[in-house]
Design goal:
- The structure is a single chain.
- This protein is α/β, with parallel strands linked by helices.
- It is 52% helix and 9% strand.
- The chain contains 24 helices and 10 strands.
- The chain has a 5-stranded parallel beta sheet with strand order 2-3-4-1-5, covered by helices on one side. A 3-stranded mixed beta sheet has the order 8-9-10, covered by helices on one side.
- Helix 16 packs antiparallel against helix 17.
Length: 530
């Protein structure tokens, strides 16, 4: 017998077999029981979530000779024929390769004839968004008023590409991404049936890599099973197939961040690059790790319900508590920016090294100050010495601050100490939110004051009053919330001293531009001409 891929062997044959789509199965089974089946369905959702499988199960159920009406029996001639693809009245059409008007006209003509082998004709059109505009127009009338005993099931991963006229004539069902725990449960059944053993952590790695698609998870499991020489599939086998690194690497990397150990972080990156790992995939893994770090810190014991392996939940919770939400948010923002750049870069390692420097807060500090800090910093710590390490949230040198947060300061307050280093990015984000607020901030100077307060100083009372308005203050607050995970109090004052600001020296042309933006004016020369 010809070998079948695992995802084909384990394709659901009953509604009860569909994983993670209970809302879909309940809707379809209730419609079958009440005899209120629609004439056309639109199945939407990511790849590998069960759209085509559900369509075939529905086709079998309405044509089953012995079934209960809610599930197919999978034993009668009709069910067996549809499963094998031998029934001419049930057709699965790939719209990616049959997308023209001629193919749809042929389909439309065939619908006029009564079914021959089963009770209902069923047309499953996969990737329906690939049809041409002319093909959609040819399908429209038939879809609106199909002949008796004809059912259309349209499946797509991109419903936004369908004409509204098509969508309005179908009953839409959205398939969701499948949860990590549900994928792990199905993988466990398959491994057991194959008389193999698989580490739980290895199955979680496969499930996380699949990103909600069960078919992708089954394909990866098959590849790992072929790679593994032993009956037991280990975490190392999965990592080798993926060309990925283990979570311990990111745990150690985070410890280096906690200690502000630049050398340790760069040496770890060297080991990753020397191992031939793809740094784009490495960045994706890093984003996933810090997302889990954030979730574990917030949800604690409930983090397992959000897809975090039980073995890691407590370790991540402990590390998250030490690091603080503000720092985690800053690192995640840095990683997301890196992810967008690294795919097309010819020097991905350099991008990573620069990102590490920014994550550790060295970006806005002079080389002399860095040397002083390096001399005063403790030696590179081992992972077990983490509890004695200083927090990454230590304020960078040269930052204006009138009160110390101390080691037990709230996460939001500690993260505010990174404001000097983050200010250019904050200004860019503010500009996207409000050009007016951005222009006002260019005219002022921001400094960090006592507690969780950001003070903005202006040269005159008029600009100070403008910034105090909710219209101009809210865009800045929204951006600070995104960057630091907290909204500090914002206090506007007329400048009375020469305290060092967060913002640097202003460009005269930029100040002129900001004045034009604030007052909705224009620049004229001394003759009065624009």
């Amino acid at each position: 017998m010809t070998y079948q891929a695992i995802y084909r062997q384990w394709r659901p044959q009953l509604f009860a077999d569909l994983v993670g789509q209970e809302h879909v199965t309940r809707t379809l089974q209730n419609a079958l029981t009440l005899d209120r089946l629609a004439h056309a369905y639109l199945f939407c959702g990511p790849r590998g979530t069960g759209k085509t499988s559900a369509a075939k199960i529905l086709a079998k159920t309405i044509n089953c000779e012995n079934g209960s009406g809610r599930e197919p029996c999978n034993q009668c001639a009709s069910c067996l024929g549809i499963t094998a693809g031998r029934v001419m009245d049930v057709q699965e059409i790939d719209a990616a390769s049959n997308r023209g008007i001629d193919e749809i006209r042929d389909l439309r003509d065939k619908t006029r004839y009564a079914p021959v082998e089963v009770r209902h004709k069923v047309y499953i059109i996969d990737e329906v968004h690939m049809l041409t505009s002319e093909a959609f127009n040819a399908l429209l009338k038939t879809l609106e008023e199909p002949p008796e005993r004809v059912l259309f099931i349209l499946a797509t991963t991109e419903p936004h590409k369908l004409p509204a006229t098509i969508i309005s004539r179908c009953q839409r069902l959205d398939f969701h991404l499948i949860g990590v725990s549900d994928i792990v449960e199905r993988l466990s059944k398959i491994v057991t049936a194959a008389e193999r053993v698989c580490d739980e952590q290895a199955m979680y790695l496969i499930a996380e890599e699949a990103a909600g698609g069960l078919r992708d998870a089954l394909s990866l499991l098959e590849q790992v099973m072929a790679y593994s020489q032993n009956d037991k599939i280990s975490q190392e086998d999965v990592l080798a197939v993926l060309g990925a690194v283990g979570r311990d690497v990111f745990y150690d990397f985070t410890e280096f961040l906690s200690h502000r150990d630049l050398a340790g972080a760069l040496l770890l990156l060297q080991d990753v690059a020397a191992g031939g790992k793809d740094l784009h995939h490495f960045t994706q893994q890093a984003v996933s790790y810090y997302r889990d770090l954030m979730v574990a810190g917030v949800c604690g014991d409930d983090a397992v319900r959000l897809g975090i392996a039980p073995e890691w939940a407590k370790r991540l919770k402990s590390q998250s508590d030490r690091l603080g939400m503000g720092t985690i948010g800053m690192v995640l923002a840095e990683l997301h920016a890196l992810l967008a750049e690294i795919r097309w870069s010819t020097r991905p390692r350099l991008l990573w090294e620069l990102a590490i420097i920014r994550m550790l807060g060295f970006g806005a500090v002079s080389s002399e100050t860095q040397a002083e800090k390096a001399a005063a910093a403790p030696k590179r710590a081992e992972p077990q010495q983490v509890s004695q390490a200083q927090n990454i949230s230590e304020p960078p040198s040269g930052y204006k601050k009138s009160a110390s947060a101390g080691p037990s300061a709230p996460a939001g307050q500690a993260s505010l100490q990174n404001l000097e280093r983050m200010w250019p990015r904050i200004m860019d984000l503010v500009k996207k939110e409000s050009v007016k607020t951005h222009a006002l901030l260019l005219s002022g100077e921001a400094v960090c004051c006592e507690g969780n307060t950001l003070e903005i100083r202006f040269g005159g009372a008029f600009l100070c009053e403008m910034m105090e308005s909710n219209e101009n203050k809210k865009p800045l607050q929204d951006v600070l919330q995104k960057v630091f995970g907290t909204v500090p109090a914002i206090r506007c004052r007329v400048s009375t001293d020469s305290a060092k600001p967060v913002t640097g020296e202003k460009d005269p042309e930029e100040l002129i531009s900001s004045a034009v933006e604030i007052f909705h004016g224009k620049v004229v020369d001394d003759t009065g001409r624009s």
